[in-house]
Amino acid sequence: MSGAHIVVHYHELWLKGGNRDFFLHKLRLAMKRALEGLRVARIVQPGDRYVIELLEAGELDEALVRLSRVFGIANLAVARSLDRAETAAAADPLEPLQRAAWEEVRGEKFSTFAVRAKRSDKRFPLSVLTIEREVGGYLHDQLHAAGNPVRVDLSKPELTCRIEITPGPILIYGRRIAGAGGLPTGTAGRLTCLLSGGFDSAVAAYKMMKRGAHASFVHFWGGGADPGESSVHVARELVKRLTPWQFTSKLYLVPFEPLQREIVRLAPEKYRILLYRRLMLRIATRIALRQRSKGLITGDSLGQVASQTLQNMAAVGAATTMPIYRPLAGDDKLEIIALAEKIGTHDISAEPFHDCCPVFLPKAPALFADARELDEAEKGMDVEELVRRGLKDFKIERFRYENGKVIQAEAERKTLA
Predict the structure, then answer these.
(1) CB 409 within 8 A of CB 400
(2) Is this prediction's pTM over 0.90?
């Protein structure tokens, strides 16, 4: 079986100036890692794109699925590749281009089209305008002769046949596949995400991962260990779903219900939820510092629940000096759910589980607390002892994406107390 060529375009990486090579190197490594186990002949960079050459066309669909999760890719295309010797040997260098373009578009359905050429190798004897005009005219005549009364539309064509004259092969393709966008994984440093099990925090982690951050996850759980009794199984599945985007993940599982009971026993009722969150931030901060994270990620969406008013978010955030990133602050629930569906976390988060946050929920939670009020509410508790207890006995689960599958290592019990 013959091979296949995948053209990979990037966009935002061109804005990186003198650091461009660093980002492109990271993108290449990410593509190579994503394609592990597939028969890749080589990954080359002719001009301002990458070209992945597969030895087996039968692996094309799997390769496209894996590459769709590589941050930094703007779009992908499956291209016909012409060897430069073939065009050089032709009496008219346009003929091989016209034939290949016809083979590319003849099976597609469209009513308007355009031809766009890009010539990064100036040694090719024909100009961009000549290629576009002559190949476009040839396709128009062939399509009409085949009974397809298409017309040319240079502004908003339904199909664009692209011809890229690179220093290597000539690449011709008619359809682009949207990539993940963003920046290659690991280019922005490490962050630690407080993962709840609901829709929001997994989507928040994804949005920061898309900006090049590598996320670890801290999940505070209560209840039993079986599905429906505990949120652990949901958190675990969420991390498994997110791991292919960044290749490796750690999940820290912290038992939280005993600590909540202390807060319920010692603190004013209306502040319970806020004090739960402050304690979670303090514990997550210790874990984040241990793994050299540059900040924390939360799934807060402004005004979505009582604890996420501007005042309450500021009062809770005062419990840590570490930066807190809230990428969903301006998103509504419908936007968050739509993105959860897109990245595949929606159905996992929709499973029933025991969420520790609403346990002992106050009848009238505080809406506009400030840090001083919460500091005062914590005076009756030994906060440092609660943090120490939270760090005394937790588990770490490790995940890695390898050969197209997520592999989970055996869990480890740890203590940072």
Answers:
(1) yes
(2) yes
